[in-house]
Amino acid sequence: MPRVTSADVARESGVSRTTVSYVLNDTTGTVISEETRRRVRAVADRLGYAPSAAARTLRSGRSDLVLCVLPDWPVGPVVDALLDQLTGELAARDLSVLVHHHREHRPLADLWRAVTPRAVVGLAAFSAAEAEGMRRAGIQVIGSVVDPDPRGPDEFAAYQTRVGRLQVQHLAGAGHRALGYATTTDPRLADFAGPRLDGVREECRWLGLPDPPVVPVDVTAEAGLAAVRALRQGPVTAVAAYNDEVALAVLAGARAAGVRVPQEVAVIGVDDVPAAQLAAPPLTTVSQSLELQARFLSASVLAALDGGPEPPRPTDLLRLVVRSSA
User: Fold this and answer.
1) Which of 17, 132, 166, 178 makes an SS bond possible with 235, Cβ 3.0 to 4.6 Å?
2) What is the model's pTM?
3) Distance CA 167, CA 126 (A)
């Protein structure tokens, strides 16, 4: 179906395109009767007319869009929650968030040139060339990275190795000396899975614990059962999982194997998804404070647009949520 244009609205309303533009943009200093205004707006609503983002940008001299670039990650409850919070924070300043699920086959420059955003938020680091190209176009750039070394001045760090270390600290503090690790099988999550496992191994070495056996686990009860059986062949009494979804699969596998949680094996996840507290038993997990992350990213966008100082970086993102599973 062809896109409805201002010419269509003008033709249906019996007025000029200039009049349509004046009415729909609430242009001041024009003499247009209230009856004509009502008629034009009614026709625009009936036809489903909406001015293009590019046209709004040309008229106002600026865009109301913030482009959020999501890397090639699976979209689940964690990403959904972060994007929902970020959208709500920026909506308070009449900014709209456009989410782009980035794939390598299309250059990012093609997108930002087409939509002309005021700012671009990356949930992973941009390349130096991408960031420089956007800055030259007058676009504010806010990036987020995983365990960066070094971190760029416009990037926000989410330290995933600390997640793994916190899991081990809790399990070891509860008296567990032989730990296992249940990791994800999704290669798109390697940027998170690698650092989290590194953190688990580092903390085990620091505490003098054996290097944990690692078992890849699909998010199915069958995979969880196979993982529990493999880990229980050794002296493992606690399992740190890549995230809550993997942990829930391990819990399902433990039930199927007749292994009691936490009496025979403790389980800890990451993210504190809504289903974690509904698990049987309720899942102990590491929360990453998505609300604080979204608030910081939105504050960074607004500070960049307003020319204000960079907001303080949150330092208390990780929080242990203790429930019955560990």
Assistant:
1) 178
2) 0.74
3) 30
Helices and strands: H and E segment counts in the chain:
12, 11
- Are 179 and 200 in contact by the 8 Å Cβ rule? The answer is yes
> What's the number of domains the chain is made of?
3
SS3 215: strand
In a domain, 326, yes or no: no
The answer on 200 and 255 residing in a single domain is yes
Please give the DSSP secondary-structure letter assigned to residue 113: H
Contact 66, 120 (CB under 8 A): yes
Beta bridge partners of 99: 68
Specify the DSSP class assigned to residue 284: E
Please report whether residue 89 resides in a domain: yes
Q: How far is Cα 179 from Cα 102, in angstroms, rounded to an integer?
A: 36
Tokens representing 215 are 């078992």
Is residue 175 in some structural domain? yes
pLDDT in tens, the chain (326 residues): 566 777 888 888 888 877 887 787 766 667 788 888 889 889 888 887 766 554 555 444 456 888 888 877 777 777 788 888 888 888 888 888 888 876 666 677 777 777 778 888 887 777 788 888 888 878 888 877 666 554 555 556 668 899 999 999 999 999 999 999 999 999 988 888 999 999 999 999 999 999 999 999 999 999 999 999 999 888 899 999 999 999 999 999 999 999 999 999 999 999 999 999 999 999 999 998 877 888 888 888 888 888 888 888 777 788 999 999 99
